[in-house]
Automatic annotation (TrEMBL), chain A:
Domain of life (superkingdom): Bacteria
Keyword Transmembrane helix annotated: yes
Transmembrane segments: 20-48, 55-72, 111-134
Pfam families in UniProt: DUF2062 (PF09835)
DUF2062 domain: residues covered: 7-140
Keywords linked to the UniProt accession: Membrane, Transmembrane, Transmembrane helix
Name the record gives this protein: DUF2062 domain-containing protein
Coiled coil: none
Naturally occurring in which organism (per UniProt): Aliidiomarina haloalkalitolerans
TrEMBL record, chain B:
Species the sequence originates in: Aliidiomarina haloalkalitolerans
InterPro entries per record: CHP03545
The protein's name: TIGR03545 family protein
Keywords, sorted A to Z: Membrane, Transmembrane, Transmembrane helix
NCBIfam families in the cross-refs: TIGR03545 family protein
Residues annotated as transmembrane: 7-28
Length: 174, 589
């Protein structure tokens, strides 16, 4: 985990594209908020592995949103049930029901549909927000952060040594 | 392109997914086997074993070898087992959890077969019924075999008491009769009365004074006669009472030995309630085994009903739920056609099924049917079993089954072996027919099992076992009325049979025969006592009867003599002739 965090910090501090990190957070959110053993998560995993996004960011976002998902599953259940029971959408759901592929995606499961739709809706917000946060971190937070006293203390810790090992930058700034 | 695609990652993904696909395809059989064993064990309530599962991908089919369903009630036995099952089904339907089997073949089905090792029963298994425990020991029935000695002790032989009572009564009556006899007039006195009345009536009064004198004489004479007549009447009454009492007593004495013997025999009669359950103990396990074959259709249906019940689980908002959009109304589970091959000792039967599902509304209300018909063979003359069932939201579960079996040759088989008592059916011809209906998951029906040309054998050391062994050999035919009721998964059976009555009758005859010698001795003794008593009493009764007859003749004579009225006396011949004629008519003088 320490190694993973170190890699994340390296990515935050290095020249990695902010969008690569932001999309990693988005895919991690999908993976974390929706039920893990779902067919769409295979596609998410495929995208995370085959596209040049930051894997550490993806994994950490996945872990973070997995924990969050336990708290808001009832919300997803409510969203999914509302959609599935909406009369206007019924013809769509009925036609999908006879489609084995759609059934494999478990579209008629309240939490699966609710969480997936929630992720789709939040992505246009979450992706720019993540991008902005990364850019802001690099330009402002990092300099302010380096000046903090406890950061100076941390520089003497094992974590910092690991970070340096990963980054390969002797004497690099935090 | 390279700025966007991470080739190592993409290749790794493809490799991992490809490897997973290969593993799943390679190990599909064991994976499905584990899944099936888990699911079926849950449905069965006890361990289900499948030796192997093979998946054939095109056309998609599943083959299973050596299926064993442990009987949760008797884990040492399999409720049902099959050597092989092969199902052809639609792959994509199966992927989305809709089981649509075109063709199912199950062969080597057997029931109640002993397992190599007892199966595990799920901790949450609950029996649906409390079936009658056929396997209780015969000793538990507490069959009481009466002994002759014991019966004689409590049979209260009454003949000696009756004789004594008769003798006492005789003494009392005799005293009364003797007392009355002492007041009787002498015969000569009565003769004197007759002569004097004749003399008065023969007289020829010439004058009114003579007539008055005669009338006065007659009145005086009649006063004496009335006194004697009252004494005679008292004697007759006492004698009549004595004769009645003594005749009744003698009748009681003569019939007493017969009544005593009948009482002894009735105490030896075997009417113990325990025998009413004997047929159940002897044939219960066998009938239970036979009924498993008769009701095997419901063994297949039972788990499906369980499955349909399981769908009613309320979802959790933390786990979500699947919402059904099945507007096409295709059944979730359907076996279009199935052939089940049932293995019986030394032979097998084939049963055809059609449209097996629990959602009959979705196949136009067509019921599931099953039929078994076997032509005449060396094992039976006729064998037919058929039935149907359907489930609908409106009507619920409804079904029925009927069977008709003729001329089944039963070979030697053990019926019962416990506590050194072994009962065997050496051979019999079995006929059976009946019908069972199902409503709301509960079975209710009845049937008759007729056993002909029966040969039974029983062996044991206990006295009751030896007596039973003597009589079961005489049983040639009997009927068993079978009642079936209870949940489909575990129906309860009860048996009523005339075998119990037959055994009761035969055991009574056997006990009576055993007691015959002692009863004959008892009868001889009692009859000797009666003979001795009656030899003494009969002459005495005859003497009283003779005395009574004499008394009655005295009474008649006196009554006739008193019939002459003093006012009838007249002057001259006219009176004489009239009186003479009257007297002649009454006393024949």
């Amino acid at each position: 985990m320490l190694s993973m965090l170190a890699r994340l910090f390296k990515a935050l501090n290095a020249e990695t594209s902010p969008w690569a990190l932001a999309w990693a957070f988005v895919l991690g959110m999908f993976m974390g908020l929706t039920p893990l053993f779902s067919l769409h998560n295979v596609i998410i995993l495929f995208l995370a592995l085959s596209l040049r996004i930051n894997l550490s960011g993806f994994i950490l976002a996945w872990l973070f949103f997995s924990g969050l998902a336990y708290l808001i599953d009832p919300l997803f259940d409510w969203i999914g049930e509302s959609l599935l029971l909406a009369p206007a959408l019924e013809p769509l759901w009925v036609s999908l029901y006879e489609n084995p592929l759609a059934r494999l995606f478990q579209y008629n499961h309240t939490i699966t549909l609710g969480s997936f739709v929630f992720c789709l809706l939040i992505t246009p917000i979450w992706a720019p927000v993540a991008y902005k946060l990364i850019v802001t971190y690099r330009s402002r937070v990092k300099a302010w952060f380096d000046r903090l006293r406890f950061v100076q203390v941390i520089k003497g810790t094992k974590f910092f040594a690991m970070y340096q090992k990963v980054s390969g930058l002797r004497g690099g700034s935090l | 392109m390279n700025k966007v695609i991470r080739w190592p990652g993409l290749i790794a993904f493809v490799v991992i997914i490809g490897a997973l696909a290969i593993i799943i395809r390679t190990f599909a059989g064991p994976i499905v086997k584990s899944g099936l064993e888990y699911g079926l064990t849950r449905a069965n309530g006890a361990e289900v074993n499948i030796a192997s599962v093979n998946i054939h991908w095109s056309p998609f089919s599943v083959s299973m070898e050596e299926l064993q369903f442990t009987d949760p009630e008797t884990p040492a036995l399999n409720r049902v087992q099959a050597q092989r099952a092969h199902a052809e089904l639609y792959f994509w339907d199966a992927v989305i959890g809709r089981i649509h089997i075109r063709d199912l073949e199950v062969s080597g089905i057997a029931m109640g077969v002993e397992r190599r090792s007892p199966g595990r029963v799920r901790a949450d298994y609950q029996s649906d019924s409390e079936p009658f425990d056929w396997r209780q020991t015969l000793a538990d029935l507490e069959i009481e075999i009466p002994t002759v000695e014991g019966v004689l002790e409590r049979s209260e032989i009454r003949t000696p008491g009756v004789i004594e009572q008769a003798q006492t009564n005789f003494e009392i009556q005799r005293e009364k009769v003797d007392e009355a006899r002492a007041n009787l007039p002498e015969k000569e006195k009565l003769e004197g009365y007759r002569e004097r009345v004749e003399a008065i009536t023969e007289a020829r009064p010439r004058t009114p004074e003579e007539l008055l004198q005669l009338r006065e004489d007659l009145r005086t004479l009649q006063r004496d006669m009335r006194t004697d007549r009252d004494a005679v009447r008292a004697f007759v009454a006492v004698s009549e009472e004595a004769v009645t009492v003594l005749r009744s007593d003698l009748e009681a004495v003569r019939s007493a030995p017969g009544q005593d013997i009948e009482r002894v025999r009735s105490l030896l009669r075997f009417d113990n309630d325990s025998l009413s359950e004997l047929s159940g103990v002897l044939f219960g396990p066998k009938v239970e085994q036979w009924s498993q074959y008769l009701l095997m259709a419901f063994d297949f249906i039972g788990p499906m009903l369980q499955r349909s019940d399981d769908e009613e689980v309320k979802p959790s908002r933390w786990e979500g739920r699947f919402i059904d959009f099945d507007r096409a109304q295709r059944p979730v589970f359907l076996i279009e056609r199935a052939v089940t091959d049932i293995r019986l000792p030394d032979t097998h039967l084939s049963m055809d099924w059609a449209n097996i599902t629990w959602q009959h509304d979705r196949i136009g209300g067509t019921p599931s049917t099953f039929a078994l018909a076997a032509s005449e063979s060396s094992w039976w003359q006729e064998l037919a079993l058929n039935g149907e069932f359907s489930m609908s939201d409106l009507r619920g579960f409804a079904g029925q089954q009927a069977w008709r079996i003729r001329g089944v040759n039963l070979v030697e088989q053990e019926l019962f072996a416990q506590n050194d008592v072994v009962a065997k059916l050496l051979g019999a011809m079995l006929n059976s027919e009946g019908q069972v209906g199902v409503s709301a998951g509960e079975l209710n029906g009845s049937g008759v099992i007729s056993m002909r040309d029966v040969a039974l054998d029983l062996d044991g050391d206990a006295r009751w076992a030896r007596i039973l062994a003597d009589v079961v050999g005489q049983i040639n035919a009997f009927d068993m009325n079978l009642n079936v009721s209870g949940p489909m998964q575990a129906p309860g059976l009860s048996i009523r049979s005339d075998l119990d009555n037959q055994l009761q009758r035969l055991m009574t005859a056997r006990l009576t025969a055993e007691a015959d010698e002692q009863i004959a001795r008892l009868r001889s003794d009692l009859e000797q006592r009666v003979s001795s008593a009656t030899e003494n009493l009969d002459p005495r009764l005859n003497a009283i009867v003779a005395g009574l007859a004499e008394g009655q003749s005295f009474e008649a004579l006196l009554t006739d003599l008193l019939a002459v009225s003093p006012d009838d006396l007249r002057l001259g011949d006219q009176l004489r002739d009239r009186l003479r004629g009257s007297l002649r008519d009454r006393i024949g003088g």
